[in-house]
Amino acid sequence: MKHQQLLDLWSQSAKVSVFLKCVFYSMSYKAPRRFSNGRNFGVARQQDSVADIVPRRPYAPYANKGPNKWSRNLVWTASDGNMPRKNDNTYGSTKTQPSELGTSVSNQQRRSAAYGKRCSSVSDSRGWGSYDKGSPKSKECLCKFWKDGNCKKGDQCSFLHSWTSLPGMVMVASLDGHKKDLKGIALPQGSDKLFSASSDGTLRIWDCHTGQCVHTINLQAEAGSLMSEGSWVFLGLPNAVKAFNVQTSKDLHLNGVVGQVRAMTVANGMLFAGTSSGTISVWKATDSESDPFTYLTSLEGDNTGEVTCFIVGGQRLYSGSADKTIKVWDLSTLECTMTLRQHTDTVTSLLCWDQYLISASLDGTIKVWACSENGSLKVTNTRRQEQSVHTLCGMSDAEGKPIVFCSYQNGIVSICDLPSFEERGKMFSTNTVGAITVGPEGLLFTGDKSGKLRVWNLAGTKV
């Protein structure tokens, strides 16, 4: 029986590989182009700030562009370059901490870390705003009748007739096609295509000029995750990772996975894939054209639940799990150095900002972690929400100030300043938003549990 299952899995993988190869050979590479009227997903421009998708890597928020070239999603300015800030007097100080990372932190990132000039609504202290009180409630609520398309009050309605309450933010397009939960959204370098994967068993490829779906690939299995790095797109499947290059059309099947791949990330020239079995498979990137990824090892630790999310900070990999823990891995030795156990339900998302680790959970909390005197990570602030928290994503605004997107179970995405967590506005969806990806030129992509993929533009935002 097991032999037959392996044969079936191999057959399915081979079919997907052949189809992907045909698709990517048919997608001729186009040189990067600047703005043209056809590059806003086929809809009329809402305002002059609605930008095109430039075919380049959409660098994740707070990307570390220093020696650790595959590190993502952080500004890491701690003196040792590895651990979050120690929980000392600097926590309440407005002074910028000197960085010893050299060129690994850009001038723009330094301004973000120091938090620069603040708007009047944000406290001048270094603290994280009011403790244990959650985000302030907004008076703006979405009209449920307008959401269903049948509000008869029009402009006289006292509720919001918009998918966002943040001034300057525009929903550029809504891309329909997926039938179930979006598991990942990717924009690979060297392509003018947007990729999305869903638990409905399909991978869709969208044309950024028109907003039309140009290819739908039947994966014959549930997609668990999707991400891109450079020109590579990585797709997580049951017991497999598919890797394909949009420039060379190279298509690979990476062996060494046990279980459904739920999360992936890259760091230090390595690809990490977290699975439903609790293991983390690791591949090393090589210079070989014939074998660009070599299986390295499997990180098992003492996980008892599936790996749900990753983030990289300095020389540390952080993994969240359904067993309510966060594990800290040393990227040099690939050993687990500590296990964080403060959440009471599945850890759903992780984010590194400045010298802090931020975690979200189905237990309805967002926790901020800092390094204690003995070197361990301790919770310095807990933000309790009325809804379970599903996704965290960060970016910088036009003034270099960091903002964080927090997705909740009820379909609301709160947009808050850091470090105060003071709310700037909201985005609304009919279902829980489980995937948020930052694009170039202030573009943002969200995918919800119903399969709805939306494209947003935040005016004047730097990425």
From TrEMBL:
Amino acid composition bias (Polar residues), ranges on this chain: 89-111
Keyword Calcium listed: no
Residue segments, region Disordered: 81-111
GO molecular function, one term: zinc ion binding
Domain named C3H1-type: residues: 142-164
Zinc finger (C3H1-type) boundaries: 142-164
Pfam families named in the record: WD40, zf-CCCH
Membrane-traversing stretches: none
Keywords for this protein: Metal-binding, Repeat, WD repeat, Zinc, Zinc-finger
InterPro entries, per database record: WD40/YVTN_repeat-like_dom_sf, WD40_PAC1, WD40_repeat_CS, WD40_repeat_dom_sf, WD40_rpt, WDR86-like, Znf_CCCH, Znf_CCCH_sf
WD repeats: 175-216, 314-339, 340-369
Protein name according to UniProt: C3H1-type domain-containing protein
